[in-house]
Amino acid sequence: MTSEITMVVNPVAGQGRGARAAQPAAAALRDAGFAVRTVVGHDADDALTRAHAAVESDTGALIAVGGDGMASLALQAVAGTGVPLGVVAVGTGNDFARATGLPVRDPAEAGRRIAAALKDGTGRDIDLGRVADRWFGSVLASGFDSRVNDRGNRMRWPTGKSRYDLAMLAELATLRAVPYRLTLDEGEPVELAATLVAVGNGPSYGGGMRMCSDARMDDGLFDITVVGECSRATLLRVFPRVYRGSHLSHPAVTVHRARTVTLEAPDTTGYADGEPVGALPLTARSVPAAVRVLAAE
Predict the structure, then answer these.
(1) How far apart are CA 203 and CA 13, in angstroms?
(2) In what residue span(s) does the DAGKc domain sit (predicted)?
(3) pLDDT at 277
(4) Is domain 136-288 given the CATH code 3.30.1360.40 in the classification?
């Protein structure tokens, strides 16, 4: 493996933590003997172009500095290429880093662990999901949570997390189950009414919501969590349990496991790792060992 690696930075992640985190992470890598080339994208498209260029130039590793959005962007460049991925997680949610055993908001320690994995030739091979032309590491969301995202993305005020809190309240006011058609692997389609359906390659999204709490990232299978028809009162009562993963025992919740899943529902957008991938119907497939993450095995 070449000793030159590439660090892609989101300078605005975590209210500027991305830019501040790059220096101690890079210092830890240089102290371990690696040459670090840092690139900063002007926007997401530019950052992705630069990440692809680094991978195509046979960089020894791609290191994403930022939050889940930057980790997801890096996955688009490294998936299926053999180039390992490191993540210096300094965003708000950091679900991907937590799921893969990487330190959160400790850039120097993240740099040291990445360097150790590179030197030892170790790491963790994990599965990724693929829907349309997009890879995802955590969760493909649809239903109530994707409608919250839709509404939040349309709002110009307020800014930050409070925008999505307000969007959630607005969606709760009009809560309704949606008719879904769900096809798992080669099985027959099943029609059901659901408040939401989440396809988990990893266990959590949205900053620690363990919607697919039992999902493993190395078993070649998705955990598909279906929240059936429920009232606003029930959703509000059960929602806090999502952060512990204990909602899976509620009678309104069912979990399926499959290698591929097709979701069909009217007027519903799918979001993969928080990014919109298009209106349903969508088909997602699990791709085993699609990327090596520089983390503890």
Answers:
(1) 22
(2) 1-135
(3) 95
(4) no
